[in-house]
Structure prediction request, 299 residues.
Amino acid sequence: MIEFYQRIQSGHNPFLDFLFVLLSFLGSEPVYIFMLAFIFWNLDKRFGFRLAVLFLFSMALNSWLKDVFKFQRPIGQEGIRSIYTSSAPGYSFPSGHSQGVATFYPYLWRRYPQIAWKVFGILMILGIGFSRLYLGVHWPGDVLTGWVLGLFIVWCFDLLDRRLFKLPFSLPVKLVLSILLPLLALIVYHSKEGFQMGGFVLGFASGYFLEDHFLDYQERTSWRHSIYKTVTGLGILLLYILLLRPLTHDWVGFYLPVYALAGLWTAFGAPYLFRRFGWERKETNTSNSICKPNDKNTA
Prediction:
């Protein structure tokens, strides 16, 4: 095993270090949060909501499995070079980065099966998984198991999706479930990343149901309006998180309310603002739409 790491790390240099640190960062929870916001505002709000719920469940399961198996990471092993260790807290098996990327993109393909999305997703799955090996923070079995689990969870969620999300719950029940289920996930997903993702999904799901009931926001617009929405929405979201980030230095639990408000802004506050600015209006030429989904999968 040591020889395996020495082989893949033998040509390390500053450029490769930067490249694989970047790939690993692209598999972190904050990046997925920004991608979910983009999907919700510009592509398909209902699909974005489902993807957020699926991703939280997958990461909660990953955290639980790590606590069950308690496998140690290769960090500190003689002959293995480990960098970007700040992205590798806790136990090793299975790889959260690998499971997350193998959950996110294969489910995305259900809605957007175009070849460009599939090629990009495959590159991300392979690149992020390999980055965890190059960086010396995971064993090969961690990465392989993460990939398999991610794909399996997508398959199971697809079966559940056909039934669960079509049940006629009232708005109060939906709001209670939006708060309760993410909090239950934190029982096993109680890391910094868990409070980030759990808090975001709590606010995001609550905001989605409020938006669906009171606004009925129309997400598909022209490229021009999509650029306005993305720059403004993500700019405010990033500024808000950076301003409140110091609160999280005292206690990791502060991530929960901070990211819950971020999720509420994403699903309700931003769509309301976009409507006020007139960026929700569709243009006559529908060929200018930012993306053409597979409408057969629309719920």
About this structure: The CA atoms of residues 249 and 255 lie 9 Å apart.
